[in-house]
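Q: I'm writing a short explainer about DUF2634 domain-containing protein for a general audience and would like to include a description of its predicted shape. Could you first generate the structure from this sequence?
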Amino acid sequence: MSFPFETEEAVILEENNLSQYEYGINFKMGRLTGDKVEGIEALKIWIYLALHTARYRFVIYSWDYGNELDELIGKSYSKEYLEMECKDMVEQCLLVNEKIESIDNFNMALNEDKLTISFTANTIYGEVDINV
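A: Of course. Here's the predicted structure. Afterward I'll give you a sentence or two in plain language.
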């Protein structure tokens, strides 16, 4: 049910947890900038937050939001298996956003206990290179 002043599009976006804007983040400082960003910049922030949010852990988010990468922690899988699972989990995490069309150039590096992932997200705004 929606309020009389809400548009149908706003309700659909809210239900899908896909807003038209995000609050800007200064990634170097790890702080909010106070600005609202749109377009490709908003999508970069959405990707960052989705990849840093565990799926099913927080009741505020729908079960479609977030990732399941924490399921790999503490397991002794081969590098090949980890790369395959990470790519699949990242795709499942990000492709729920209708603005993201595909993931390419996926690379994974495991240094001791730190997992680094890089890829190119093909979006409706163009390509976005992501490193997390």
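A: For your explainer, you could say: Residues 8-131 form a domain with the Nuclear Transport Factor 2; Chain: A, fold (CATH 3.10.450.40).
Q: Perfect, that's easy to follow.
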